[in-house]
Predict the structure.
Amino acid sequence: MLNRPAHEQRAASPAMTDERYLDVVAVRKSFKGVTVMDGMNFRVARGELVSLLGPSGCGKTTLLRIVAGLMQADDGSVILAGRNISSLPPHKRNISVVFQNYALFPHLSVAENVAFGLRARGMSKADAVQPVREALALVRMQDFADRSIGGLSGGQQQRIAVARALVVRPDLLLLDEPFSALDRKLRETMQVELKSLLRDRGITGIFVTHDQEEAMGVSDRIAVMNAGRIEQFADPSTLYASPATPFVMDFVGLSTRLSGRVTGQEGARVVVETALGTLRAPGGLATGTPVLIGVRPELIRLEGGAGMNRVDLVLEDVAILGSKTMLQGRPDGGDRLLCELAGIRNGKARGDAISFHWAVEDTLIYDASAEVTT
């Protein structure tokens, strides 16, 4: 039976708990003498939905495979629900994985695919009927039990893969880019459905994705990964509003980005000289420090008042994006100038001279001498 006892049900916001459930401790992994993960520490609370977000090659799939037991770490520990599972084979970890290609068996029916994990654990065919029926009902595929896999759409196959993963009542559910093969509309629908399903059942889940919108939409917290390490691990709103590094700022959302150098201090603010003029930002970096200035495009306005930051520029592009309009300034070197306005604005055109204004308090600033490039 899939129904959990009442005492196992979790609150609607499991991310608020400090309960330790999955602990990845000091994990190290190398391939052919090249270290791809060194001293990785990663913790997930019971019932939490976490995404590993980052570009290809950043280590997110390696971390997922180590947790699943599909790959052995060179050093370190994986602890699940207080049990060290580092040396256990995958089939003894009680962890389910939904793969990018779903890994369904074309020669088996839908019901037989869902029952596969139960049968592999020794459950009889007769005893597997009821849990398989319940698992298919969870993903609204109970009417497809006798269908062949080859006759299903991509979205239907994704549902079957999830049902097969859930029917064994895993201690942890891992999903490796499970929506990448779906079109945008279906992908968004499946994200909402899966998030709701896991929440309702109190299941702890880890998503691997390179899609920031997907990560923001399904996660309690997101671990942004880069070059085998976690740059920031926080809830979506914190990642977006207060990115810890330039990499996180660039990977999570869009931003205006200007290079400069600190030329002075005004109380709790620093004065920064850029190619487009003098700006101010909160902070206390030393004079002479090379810095990177950032600001989210929706915080920029075309009109401003005294005390606001301002840059004058020439419009390079005006993009109408349905409910918003994106203005892009002509960049200088590595600089990037973006302004997002609500609604459709037809009053501006490429080549127009305009000004971007934003509050000093909305300015992000980073020590560029400490920035790690990839």
